[in-house]
């Protein structure tokens, strides 16, 4: 006898259940043991407890098809669910996500408080790794990409401008099995959104040189052939750090490691491990101000080491005090400027806007306190009306470097005429 066909309402129910696997609704919360899986199975969201940890459980996002459990976002990183209490993640009628424990205590929540006036609001996990709260009209009210933990994924934009409402920092895990916030953080520098800094508490640990307007700020090709492009973009005068990967690339991510290292990683399916193909600071003298005032980290050496800038000599037996001038400039108009190529520009600059190259040089030459200047035409990468970047330094030059790969820019260093 032929099997009876399934009733239509059963088929529709099965279809609905399948489609709801990537989303939460007010009628469908997430409980312990449940998980969301993005449409094509790339990422999953659920409850987890780190290996070798007794702190409790968390809600996070991880790669769904990678055997080594790797988390890219954690909601309640500083408020774990404790005492074995089951938690629940719900979408409220105010279009918020709320995580609570079994006693109803709120451990984490979004702060939208946005009433759509219609049913159909949902939280959707996308194949990009982004968790979004989506209104019935399809508008994304909130997204996890705006509230990162320690990871940047392809297509995600990290705001670098501190006056941006979305400005935030990456904050490293406290340890390999502890997602709580640590002392290491990374983001745009509050004194200049042209550069990116890693802090250890309030002290700089590493700094990326001031952006020179290049459309591509870093380009890396892995041993397996895929290409990752890191860019800084200027959108309406606000700066963002982002990266993309070539088609067919493996899973790729950028993280601020719990050791304070900023790493670019790609999944190696052959070895079933994450391959670190670039990390900063590296070498050791690339750490912030490691070579002292007027010293620089010379990566062109076979073994990178500290050297003194042209016209300077070590101020002591090592570089703990940096370097000192061999001869002081007279500031009588006879001083010269030595062109140092391929340099990482120093920290603590003054950003002078709307200047040509000649005007930038004059800004430095006419100021006896000016020790160096750098100029860049930013018309390729900037959408603001000011498409030049004149930097001048008044006093010590700290955290300077020389690149070995032909990158970097010209630093014009003031010297005495006889130097």
UniProtKB/TrEMBL annotation:
One GO cellular component term noted in the UniProt record for this chain: membrane
Name of the protein in its database record: non-specific serine/threonine protein kinase
Record has Disulfide bond as a keyword: yes
InterPro entries, per the entry: Bulb-type_lectin_dom, Bulb-type_lectin_dom_sf, Pan_app, S_locus_glycoprot_dom, SLSG/EP1
Membrane topology qualifier: Single-pass type I membrane protein
Sequence ranges assigned to domain Bulb-type lectin in this UniProt record: 21-146
Pfam families tied to this protein: B_lectin, PAN_2, S_locus_glycop
Reaction catalysis annotation: L-seryl-[protein] + ATP = O-phospho-L-seryl-[protein] + ADP + H(+); L-threonyl-[protein] + ATP = O-phospho-L-threonyl-[protein] + ADP + H(+)
Any single GO BP term: response to other organism
Domain Apple: start-end pairs: 331-416
Superkingdom to which the source organism belongs: Eukaryota
Signal sequence extent: 1-20
Subcellular location: Membrane
Keywords: Disulfide bond, Receptor, Signal
Uppermost EC category: transferase
A single GO molecular function term of this UniProt record: protein serine/threonine kinase activity
EC number(s) stated in the UniProt entry for this protein: 2.7.11.1
Function of the protein: Involved in sporophytic self-incompatibility system (the inability of flowering plants to achieve self-fertilization).
